[in-house]
Write a structure and sequence with these properties.
Helix content: 40-55%
CATH architecture: 3-Layer(aba) Sandwich
Order of helices and strands: EHEHHHEHEHEEEHEH
Radius of gyration: 19 Å
CATH topology: Rossmann fold
Number of helices: 8
Number of strands: 8
Strand order of the largest sheet: 2-3-1-4-8
Distance between the termini: 5 Å
Largest sheet: 5 strands, parallel
Oligomer: single chain
Bound molecules: zinc ion
Structural class: alpha/beta
Strand content: 5-15%
C-alpha cells in the first residue's frame, strides 16, 4: 500500500474520504492536529510549548511540527502505508516532507487533489447544519441530506444550528487562502508525477469510487 495525501479545499469532504480509506485498507490516519493535541498532554519542553500555543489559538512553529511529523511517521504502524493529513501546509513544508520521506526510505505515494467548483463548496458550507445534541451533520442545500423536520435532528430530535464561520464571507477568505497556499504544493507534486485529480462534484460514494479505483488498480504495492 502506498502512502496517501489529500489536497482539498475546505468542505470538500476530505475527512470523510480519509475515513473510508482507513476502514477499507486499515492504515493509520496521521493528522498533524492529532499529533499536536497528543504532544500537548505530555509534560515535556515541547509538550508545554505546544500546549501553550494551542490554548492561545496560535500556530505551532514549523520546525517543531516537522520534527513531530517525522517522529510519528517512524513508528512501525506507518511502514505499510498511511494517510497524512494537515501536512504539508505550504511549499516549504512540502520540501521538508520530501527530505523526511527520503530519510525514512518512504515514497510520497498518491497525492489526491479533490477538485470542486467554488459555487458547490459555497452551497455545502452555507447549508451545513449541526445537531447541538448528537453533532449529526445535515445540509439544507443538498437533497439527500436535508433534515425531515425543519431545524430538527432526524436521529435524536435535537435542535440544529449553523456554525458562525459557515457563511459566505468566511468561506471566501478561507478559499482564497487555500488557493494561495496550495497552488505551489500542487505544482510541486504534479512535477513529481504523483498528483491524481479527483472530480469532487459527486456524492461521497462516487468520489470514493474514483479514489479507490486508483489505489486498487495498482494491485499489490
Ligand atoms: Zn441529533
Amino acid at each position: 500500500m502506498k502512502n496517501i495525501m489529500f489536497i482539498a479545499p475546505p468542505a470538500a469532504g476530505k475527512g470523510t474520504q480519509a475515513d473510508l480509506i482507513v476502514e477499507k485498507y486499515n492504515i493509520p490516519h496521521i493528522s498533524t492536529g492529532d499529533i499536536l493535541r497528543d504532544i500537548a498532554k505530555e509534560d515535556s519542553e515541547i509538550g508545554n510549548y505546544v500546549s501553550e500555543v494551542l490554548s492561545n489559538g496560535g500556530l505551532v512553529k514549523d520546525d517543531i511540527t516537522n520534527q513531530l511529523v517525522e517522529q510519528r511517521l517512524k513508528k512501525p504502524d506507518c511502514k505499510n502505508g498511511y494517510i497524512i493529513d494537515g501536512f504539508p501546509r505550504n511549499i516549504e513544508q512540502a520540501k521538508i516532507y520530501d527530505s523526511i520521506l527520503n530519510r525514512l526510505g518512504y515514497d510520497v505515494g498518491y497525492v489526491f487533489l479533490i477538485n470542486i467548483n467554488e459555487k458547490d463548496l459555497e452551497k455545502r458550507i452555507t447549508g451545513r447544519r449541526i445537531c447541538e445534541n448528537c453533532k449529526a451533520i445535515y445540509n439544507i442545500n443538498s437533497e439527500n441530506n436535508v433534515p425531515k423536520i425543519d431545524s430538527t435532528c432526524d436521529i435524536c430530535g435535537g435542535r440544529l444550528y449553523q456554525r458562525k464561520d459557515d457563511n459566505i464571507e468566511a468561506f471566501q477568505t478561507r478559499y482564497k487562502l487555500y488557493l494561495e497556499k496550495t497552488e505551489p504544493i500542487i505544482e510541486h507534486y504534479r512535477k513529481q508525477g504523483v498528483l491524481y485529480e479527483i472530480d469532487g462534484n459527486h456524492t461521497v460514494e462516487e468520489v470514493f469510487k474514483q479514489i479507490d479505483s486508483i489505489i486498487s488498480g495498482d494491485g499489490r504495492n
